[in-house]
Design a protein that fits this description.
heterotrimer; A alpha/beta (309); B mainly alpha (252); C mainly alpha (260); A: 309 residues; alpha/beta; 2 domains; 6-stranded mixed beta sheet; 4-stranded antiparallel beta sheet; elongated; C: 260 residues; mainly alpha; two-stranded antiparallel ribbon
């Protein structure tokens, strides 16, 4: 049985419809991602699943229960990592966990045992008695994750878990989340980092403008919406204005050619073959890069390159 | 003229917040005059406990300087702390040719302006209450300015030293409120219990209250110049204390 | 029944959280007790000495300290409840976003409201009990009815706690709180606290009688001076009604604000 099932799920705030009827199914033990630009409706969806935002229309079932009538029962089995850390700055690191545990009705002794274990898990044991404020962004994030695990949840909701973290901190968070997944915890996360989605998600949906526009595993999405490889061609400054005509010259080399303000992208199954053909047609780019296609290519292809902030 | 720029900076900030200050600075003392002065005063005057002086006339010059002190101290705590800790504006100033004494001078000048405007308005209220008895009353203005600056110095030093804003509510409750209640504003300090009376003499507010009352009635005693001298000592010592605390905090 | 027990447990977890926080700030808790005591000494006793023999209530001579003390107790019950339920609640809700974290747990908005309110009452009740002891030691309680001043103070706390929470859900910024503080100050000075309202003009007397602190002051004064009559029930009913209205509004608004 699916842990989370949504059908025609909608969320309206006054005139604004943030989520315009989506269908989602999350199976036990999988890591499921919502990918999308800002304002796509990811966070609104997460809040409805977290039982802190009543749905406007549609069906939603979490752990077989309806959030409109069984919020407390559902929340008892969820762990939530919100987009911005909302740790209790008046408490110490350890107290943030033990006090939080009490909201789940966990006994004091058990709360302390779990808190110490979780601090170990997120590598914050040495900071147990420090205040929260002086912690680095990565440490706060890890503490928030530890807090979300205090009730040994079946599902953990993570809203942009690594936004704003430096590379080391991101990798540490990913590694911890990966371990959770190995333990069989179901992860549901939103992100706008493609590498994060590729690293963590078994399956994901791409959201844009409140709707789901694509669905599948990272590999499936790349296969469906992009090619195996991408060749990036850059040209010297005086050729910049002629990119359009150069693209015409290269017509037929790749499945698809995209003209950007500063370069050409060739979507092809075999990058090296495409490069050879470029040279054969007498085009001499300033630089050439062949790389594997990523979710970013899929994402930008589907949601467009216009800035949505 | 760098101090002048700092003064100007304070004034610009005040343009955004002056409305809120009208209540605490102007309406609160008027309400005190009504509630305690007229209310309780009715019974004081009935018994003649203060001799020929009516209670409103007794209370008003004290409230005047007490309000001046509270204003100056209040404006030297959160706003100063905020410029160190939250907006960190003092650190930004440090990157300019402005020196600590310019910042302090500008701040004290600003406080003096505020105290004098508030006290001037309060004199008009006193006229409405019929508490004007002598042309010397205008002399209460410099007394208000003096006590304001004398108490601002230590308050600025305190704000520059503390690391948490929670300390201010403690200072208000354990220092400022007791000072305003037991420095002879509401009743003569001679009526305090014997062990408490000497403490009142240490309070700069008591000296200001005495001096202000003498100006209000135009009747001076030999102690007047001592009161003024005591306040000046606080002013000078407060300046040096504030200056050194400020410098130390900026170096952190 | 079982769900009510679960709800009470969750609300008490919030209470516990506040206890953990304040354990670290003992002086902030203790200092709240001193303010009414200082006023009692300054105005009640200091100024009281100036009116000894001349102070009368309804034509009867009365010790001024006896008159002021219950008013200070009522005022402290009011401000204690308002600080926790209006100011602190607002800060936690709007700025710290603390409740967003709590709502991810089985705790609901109503349980948050009850948890905060019960803490406000416990804190205010402790102050009131301590103040009552000070009054008894200073011989400012003249009857055994004074014991009931403690529940009386809790009722004041409940009324202002409910009112404060309701207000906190409507305000937009700290600047708006200046108005709340202002109104509290006016009530503090004119609710028959320092002088009987019989001195005021008729319109002002009428206005004072509409405001809640006046009823709190009269209730406690009746109990600590032993002048107990049916009027006290009227004051208590007023405060209970205010509590009920405030809490109803607060619990509806909190749900709307927190669960968007």
């Amino acid at each position: 049985m699916a842990l989370i099932t949504a059908r025609g799920l909608q969320k309206r705030f006054g005139d604004l419809t943030a989520v315009k009827g989506i269908d989602v199914q999350v199976e036990p033990g999988e890591a499921f991602g919502f990918l999308g630009p800002n304002g796509a409706g990811k966070s609104s969806t997460m809040k409805m699943i977290g039982c802190v935002s009543p749905r406007t229309a549609g069906e939603l079932s979490i752990l077989g229960l309806d959030p409109a009538t069984h919020a407390a029962e559902i929340k008892a089995r969820l762990g939530v990592v919100p987009q911005t850390d909302n740790l209790d700055v008046e408490l110490s690191v350890l107290e943030n966990l033990t006090v939080y545990a009490r909201f789940f009705g966990i006994s004091r002794a058990e709360a302390r045992r779990r808190a110490l274990e979780l601090l170990e898990f997120v590598q914050l044991t040495e900071r147990a008695n420090d205040r929260v404020e002086p912690l680095s962004g990565g440490m706060k994030r890890r503490l928030t994750i530890a807090r979300a695990l205090i009730n040994e949840p079946e599902i953990v909701l993570l809203d942009e878990p690594t936004t704003g973290l430096d590379p080391q901190a991101r990798h540490l968070v990913w590694e911890r989340l990966f371990r959770l997944k190995q333990r069989g915890v179901t992860l549901v996360l939103t992100t706008h980092y493609m590498d994060e989605a590729e690293q963590l998600c078994d399956r994901l949906v791409v959201m844009d403008g409140g709707k789901i526009v694509a669905e599948g595993s990272p590999r499936e999405l790349i296969e469906r919406h992009s090619t195996r490889e991408v060749v990036e061609l850059r040209f010297s400054l005086n050729e910049m204005d002629e990119l359009g005509s150069i693209a015409e010259k290269l017509d037929g080399i790749a499945q698809r050619i995209e003209t950007l303000p500063d370069r050409l992208l060739l979507y092809a199954a075999d990058g090296d073959a495409a490069i050879a053909e470029v040279h054969a047609r007498g085009v001499v780019p300033a630089s050439v890069l062949a790389r594997r296609s990523t979710l970013e290519d899929v994402f930008l292809h589907i949601t467009g390159r216009t800035l949505v902030d | 003229m760098r101090a002048w720029a700092c003064y100007h900076y304070e004034l610009i900030g005040y343009r955004r917040t002056w409305k809120g200050s009208v209540f605490s600075q102007f309406i609160v003392p008027v309400l005190f005059m009504l509630s305690i002065g007229l209310g309780v005063g009715t019974y004081v005057d009935r018994g003649g406990a203060l001799g020929a002086v009516d209670y409103v006339s007794y209370l008003a010059p004290g409230l005047l300087v007490s309000t001046a002190m509270q204003l100056a101290v209040g404006e030297s705590t959160f706003p100063v702390f905020s410029n160190f800790e939250w907006s960190r504006y003092y650190y930004a100033m440090q990157a300019t040719p402005v020196r600590v004494r310019d910042v302090l001078g500008g701040l004290l000048g600003f406080l003096l302006t505020r105290v004098l405007v508030g006290a001037g308005a309060f004199l008009l209220v006193m006229a409405v209450f019929g508490a004007v008895h002598s042309p010397w009353l205008l002399g209460t203005l410099p007394v208000a300015g003096l006590v304001g600056l004398a108490c601002a110095g230590p308050a600025i030093a305190f704000a520059a030293r503390v690391t948490s804003a929670a300390n201010f509510s403690l200072m208000f409750r354990f220092v400022l409120i007791p000072l305003s209640l037991f420095s002879g504003v509401f009743f003569p300090v001679e009526r305090l219990p014997g062990w408490l009376e000497p403490l009142a003499y240490v309070s700069p507010l008591w000296h200001a209250v005495e001096l202000s009352r003498q100006f209000a009635f135009g009747a001076f005693t030999n102690a007047a110049s001592w009161h003024a001298a005591y306040l000046l000592v606080w002013l000078v010592a407060g300046w040096f204390l504030a200056h050194s605390s400020f410098t130390r905090r900026l170096q952190k | 029944m079982l769900t009510m027990v679960a709800q009470a447990k969750r609300a008490s977890a919030l209470f516990e959280r506040n206890v953990v926080v304040y354990k670290r700030l003992p002086w902030n808790i203790v200092s709240g007790f001193f303010e009414p005591v200082l006023y009692l000494f300054s105005i009640g006793i200091g100024v009281g000495a100036l009116v000894s023999g001349t102070f009368t209530v309804d034509g009867e001579p009365m010790s001024y300290a006896l008159f002021v003390a219950p008013a200070m107790m009522a005022q402290s019950a009011m401000s204690g409840a308002m600080i926790e339920s209006a100011f602190n609640l607002f800060g936690k809700m709007r700025y710290q976003k603390l409740y967003d974290a709590f709502l991810a747990t089985p705790v609901g908005p109503n349980e948050i409201a009850w948890g905060e309110l019960s803490f406000a009452l416990a804190r205010g009740g402790a102050y009131s009990a301590a103040f009552l002891v000070v009054m008894a030691v200073m011989d400012l309680t003249t009857s055994w009815w004074a014991v009931l001043a403690l529940p009386g103070a809790l009722l004041i706390g409940l009324a202002f706690g409910g009112l404060g929470m309701a207000i906190a859900t409507f305000l937009r910024s700290w600047q708006d709180f200046d108005y709340v503080t202002g109104i509290m100050y006016v009530m503090f000075l004119f609710s028959g606290t320092f002088a009987p309202i019989a001195l005021f003009p008729a319109w002002a007397q009428w206005l004072v009688q509409v405001t809640p602190l006046y009823h709190g002051v009269e209730l406690l004064r009746g109990l600590t001076t032993g002048q107990v009559g049916p009027g006290l029930i009227g004051h208590a009913v007023y405060l209970a009604a205010l509590a009920a209205i405030g809490l109803t509004i607060a619990s509806r608004r909190m749900g709307k604000l927190l669960l968007k």
